[in-house]
Amino acid sequence: MYVPMTIAGEDVDARERMAVLNPATEQVAGECGVCGPELLDRAMEAARGAADAWAADLERRRRALAEIAAAVRREAGELAAVLTAEQGKPLKAALFEVGEVARWFEAFAAMEPAQEELATEDGGHAVVRRVPLGVVAAITPWNFPLLLVGWKAAPALLAGNTMVLKPSPFTPLSTLLLGRVIAAAVPPGVFSAVAGGDDLGARMTGHPVPRKISFTGSVRTGAAVMRAAAEGLKRVTLELGGNDAAIVLDDADPDAVESPLFWGAFANSGQICAGIKRLYVPESLADPILERLVDRAKRTPMGDGTDPAVKLGPIQNRPQFDRVSALTADAVARGGTVAAGGHRLDRPGYFHAPTIVTGVGPGVPLVDEEQFGPVLPVMVYRDVEDAIAAANATEYGLSGSVWSADVDRAARVAGRLDAGTVRVNDHLTFSPRVPFGGRGVSGLGVENGPWGLDEFSDLQVLRTPGPRP
Fold first, then answer.
1. Intra-chain end-to-end CA distance of the chain, in Å
2. Confidence (pTM)
3. Which of 77, 215, 259, 287 is the most buried (most CB within 10 A)?
């Protein structure tokens, strides 16, 4: 399968191509072109040339977003199949992700850019409104390649910006297909999708045309993006991962929390920035909760995402598989106990069995760092104050959760977690209408909702003498 890039509304080939592997088979899933400097310049200039006309018509932008949502739903089968082939997630999960893309475009099509009218002290009148930035460069990761296009493109386009998008080199195919769908609904140049490696990302962030960089990925790369953006005083939104803690309180029902805790940690095979990465359970509930989680880990089918029975797919790429394996082995070497999993599946593909590790704590990299894979450390606490302190003892601050039969009690504890999003009796719900962003090294700025929409615009004040006309 070969998927072209889209620049200025046209399919574009490139002299250089790159192969994309299926992580469930380690075989080639398809190919795409590699965007060189000349093609990137063409995409950027097309985006700049289309910006003024696109910014001038809000209703046209609304219609386009609604058209994109409808087209995504029509093409859901092909998009999901390609997503499963290159990312590895089960087909049902891929179809859900595609549906979420459509939901994001629909939600932003109905949002209203902020505007406020003020009376000034001198008897004049001021309108405070949002105006587009111009061209946005967006860079998306490999764990949710399509969903995060929706998170970036829908608000950016509604705000009146044009966009050049680059997906991860591990998962470019489904994104390029989605790029063709988006580009077909907007004027040429408004949206382009290009592909390449880290060098292309560096060229995009350092390119003189974009006025904003929207990036989701690692802390290290996010810091490099910020440095490059600083040279041109570009705006940035950075979502850089997390080491989310979940705290179970002593009045929780083990039967009620077992399933959502497991999937909060292991959905997408643990490859979720805001997934549960550390679990704290009270002594009184440690045995029943651990027994239930271990049982579910052992009986949850993992395999090729095209198999309808499969619930968990592979780790998406070999470097990440090696990292997860190394963190697990290191935890064992430091005294940890593998209660479930802990090994590679005896089959082709980057399959690491769902793993639960006990007997670890601060100072162990599996606890201190973001593992981003199907491995969960479980820590036992005596005093909830100790659990709160341990949960907050991290440089990350993306999200966290508290689990209890008493919602008010849980909310009081959750409010003390140092994270951008805190939840009660849940960990993985997202809405296009609710802001999402991190504290600490988890990022800068927010996505989603009117707050995320504002991130793609500047304030402009229009002052007139006298009262409002």
1. 60
2. 0.96
3. 215
Q: What pLDDT is recorded for position 119?
A: 87
CA distance 316 to 351: 9
Active-site annotation holder among 97, 106, 239, 447: 239
DSSP secondary structure string for all residues of 173-219: HHHHHHHHHHHHTS-TTSEEE----HHHHHHHHH-SS-SEEEEES-H
Say if CB 359 and CB 335 are below 8 A apart: yes
Could you please report the per-residue DSSP string of 341-375?
A: --SB-SSSS--B--EEEES--TT-HHHHS---SSE
Query: Which of 273, 370, 447, 455 is flagged as catalytic?
Result: 273
Q: How confident is the model at residue 468 (pLDDT cuts 50, 70, 90)?
A: low
Active site residue 273: yes
| Sheet with 27-33: strands ordered across | 2-3, 27-33, 17-22
35 labelled catalytic: no
Helix extents (H) in 267-349: 283-299, 318-333
* pLDDT tens for each residue of 334-390: 999 999 999 999 999 999 999 999 999 999 999 999 999 999 999 999 999 999 999
How confident is the model at residue 122, as a pLDDT?
85
Helix (H) or strand (E) holding 281: strand 276-282
Beta strands in 13-114 (DSSP E): 17-22, 27-33
Question: How many CA within 13 A on the CB side of residue 270?
Answer: 24
Mean pLDDT of the chain: 97
- Measured CA to CA, the distance from residue 45 to residue 49 in angstroms comes to 6
Residue type (1 letter), 195? A
Residue pair 446/437 in contact by the 8 Å Cβ criterion: yes
